[in-house]
Each structure stands twice: as C-alpha cells, then as structure tokens.
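How a chain folds remains the central question behind the approach discussed here. No coordinates are needed to read the tokens, only the vocabulary itself. For completeness, the protein is quoted in full, as a sequence line and a line of structure tokens:
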Amino acid sequence: MDIDIDIQRYRRVRAFFLKVVIQALWWDVLINRPLLRRFRPEPIGRWRQIAREFRALAVEMGGVLIKLGQFLSIRVDILPMEITRELSDLQDEVPPESFDRIKARIALDFGRPADEVFAWISPVPVGAASLAQVHAVRLDTGERAVSKVLRPGIEERVAADLAAVKAALAWLKWYEPIRRRIDPDWLYREFSAVTRKELDFSNEGQNAERLAEDTADDPGVYIPKIYWSHSAGGTLTLEDVGFIKIGDVDALRRVGIDPARVADRLYALYMRQVFETHFVHVDPHPGNLFVRPLPLPEEFERGVTAFAPGDSVPCGPNRPFQIVFVDFGMMIFIPERLQSALRDYAVGLGTRDARRIVASYLKAGTLLPHADLQRLEAVHEALLDRFWGVQAGRLHEAAIREARYFAREYSDVILNAPFQFQADMLFVIRAVGILSGMAAHLDPEFDVWSKTIPYARRYAASAMERSFLSLPENTVALLRALCRLPRKADAMMDRIHQGRLVVRMTPDQDGRRVLTDIGRSVDRLANHVLAAGLLVSGAVLFGIAGGVFFGKIFMITGGFVLLLSLRNR
C-alpha cells in the first residue's frame, strides 16, 4: 500500500543531509589536497559537530531520525568512535501525543470508539517513544493491561524520513571512497527493514509468543501475555508487567533480591538466546527489562500466590524472582550462516585463540576483501593479553588506559577498518554490549570472562565430538585434497615459468613506519619542486613585458609553498 509522505518534513530532513554532503565534498574532497590540506579543520571535530546537530534535529522531530541515530550508533564498522559515541545515548523519548489523538487512533484501528474497546484507559501515558506510546488500560474482564499505540500519522512521517535517508545515501554513492567502503543501497535496505518491523505490531506480538515458547522451560523468565482480542492495526495490548525496573538496585535490595544474582541470570539468559535458541531480544535497555519478585515459601503458605505490579513487597532473605522482558519490536533471528561463526567466536574467546576468532569473522562474512588477517590476529592477541580477566565494571577504565597503545601499534588496522557487519549481527553485538554495562551496574565485580568460558568449553567439546564422529568423512576430504595437490603444484610451476607468479607480502610495524616516512618525504619533495617551479616561473615573467604582476603572484605563491614545506619538515 502506498503511503503519502509529509512533504515539509521530507524537505527539512533532506536539506540537513544535503548540507552534510556539501560540507563533506568541500572539506574532504576539494580541500583535501597536499597543499590545501593545511587549511582543513580536524575532521573528527567537524564530524562530531555534525553528529551533535543531527542529534538535536532527531530529538526535535522524533520519528525515524531517532531510530536512525540509534542505528548509526552501532555502526562502529563504518563510522569513527567519536561519532557513534555522540549518538550512543540518544534516547527514544519524545513529548507524548494528546490523549484525544491516541483515542482517535484506537478507534481507527478497531472501527469503534476507544471507550468501547477498553473498560478504562489512563489519559497519562506510561511511556512515550518516537513511534508509539503506552497507556495503562483495564479490560472488560477486569484485567489490568497496557496498550502500545502507534502515534497518529507516524506512517507518513516514517515514509518521509526514509525517502530523505534514501536520497542522502544515493548522493554518497557518487563518492568513490565511501562506495568502496560500504554499499549505500544495502545499508538503506537494512535500516528500512528494521524500522518497518517496529511499525508491525502483529509481528511484535508474534515475537513475544515465540520468546515465551523458547523460555517455557525456564522458571526464571516471564513474558507478558498478548491480548489479541484487544489488539488491532496500530494497537497492541499486553499484560501489565511493570514490576521493579532492572536497573533499580536499591528497590531490588529492599525486597531481598541480590542484584548480583540478577546480573548472573540476565547474562545466562542472553548467552542462551545468542548461542542456543538464536532468537535474541536486541533492545535490552533498562526500560525494557523488569524484575518480578516471587513469594517466599512461608508467604506462599500464608496464601500469597503472587505480587501484582505496584504491590508493596516486604523484604525477604534470598527472595526468588523472574526476569521480565517487554517491547518485542526489535527481535533478531540469527541465521544459520552466523550461528556456526558465533560458536567459533565463543570457542576462540574462551580458549584465547586469536586465529580462531579471526577465522570466525571470515566464516560470518564480516571482513572486507582487503583485510590483513595476520594484523587482525596480532590485534586480537593484544586485546586478549591486555583485557583478559578485567571485570565488566572496569572494562571502560581499561579501554581508556590502553587506547594510546592500540592507536600507536595498530593504527593501520584501526584506520583501515576492515569490517562490515550485517545489521542482525550488529544488533546482537550492541545488545551484548548494553548487557555487559547493565551487569556491571548490578554487580561491579561481574566477570564477563568467567561467565563466558563455560559456554566456550561446551561448544569446544561438542565441536571435538563432531570431529570424531565424522572421522571417515574427514579422511575422504583429506584424500581428495592430496589427490588435488599434484595438479595445484603443476599449475604453480607453470605460473613461475611464465612469470605470472604473484607473492603477497605484508610489512611489519617498523616497515609500515618506514613507508609512512617515505610517503611524507615524497610529499615534501613534490612541494619543493612546485615551489621551485613557481619561483622560476615568476622570475621569468618579471623579464617579460606586462608580466610583472603575474611574476609577483607566482613568486609570492612559490615562497608561501616553500615556507609551508619547511615548517612541516
């Protein structure tokens, strides 16, 4: 179905992106020349300012722009860290829609007034995000619930924003360095697909039910019930599960729940989602996770079978609890092409095997063709040596402490940025990153390594078992390879005789520094030659009738170029 777009919104968003493209062409293309480069401001500071301006525009206009900022904040594979950091805490919270407009949207979805759909609706929203807002409701059966309602007109605003984003990416396709680094069409398809899924409340309800099936055998998880009888179009009604927010450490302690136990259970749940069920809730911020206190045995004997949201729960020693998930719009199914790669990554991480970690990137298809595998292995060996055993609460401090070392020793890998992750993989990585931060908040002594190693060992053992079980198949594969070996050797000898053998060599760190120095020397030499040419030309023009003015210009310019070259020796 075609959706009309908000033309004024589209023009404003497109104008912002056009300004960014023009600035990039001016500073990063036209001014980025050996002589003019000295007048070019430091790129990171300029792009950081653009990120701030985009952030302000997104907060003002809401809609897809907030989602785009959040999406770009995880694209560490294509954007500098300074930019992603500016966007990383862009909150999906905007002023609420008027209650009358929300009721009109509900009436449009159900074909009857909102007061006939629900016995009662709170006029004050529980939460308001860029695409929808949530209101407490009571069903005609007397049950308490919450309704998530799309903002009126959001489809038109989303269509306008996506059209503007598509136009901006089309402009970027003309810039060869960007086109070589990313596929703008692919990036647009990923982002638009993720955004449109969040507008599909039927899909969100089905995600919730699938996650409930995946965790049915785990008494430590609770997934809210979907009330399909009170859901339609842009309205999704769920069971009210507004218990204790997972980040409220004081509230957890007041009812007798140890935050460290919550951190352990939460991390184990995500390890199971990533490595076993492969269906991952990728938006685990504190507003989407709650802790549900459960009655103690003695309370159960007194007739307390459950606590409702908002109930006063007394403090009890070692109180049992459940972790509650809400907001199922961003759920990712890890495809088969990535499942095996993730297991290999876990095994490599748990056994401190840098080569296996890099091999998992290859299997996942996340490395660009020009990636230097040996340098990547060296980087990962250094990462494992320097960060192994650091507790989650101290990872940020350790990263700041080690940043200078990695920038000095591995600047070539960092600047080359040989990764391009698919959206599903990036959202999983982002989820685990948020999860680690939440675990550190709940338990500053939380040790990510000790919690991950059991999974790595389990997968390593299962991989070894599969290898033994498939021994005959492996033997046949080995014999086939041996049979092909003489033919390959013969082909290589032919290339040697014909002078077509290509040997690829990768310089070490010292070699790279030498090459860098050589490049700088060549630049200086070119500047000296240019300066000399200008000075000589100016002197010649002085001797020609009518050439004095141009002779002065040439000589002044030549002297200026020479001074710049000498200053930057």
The two ends are 63 Å apart (CA to CA). DSSP finds 23 helices and eleven strands in the chain.
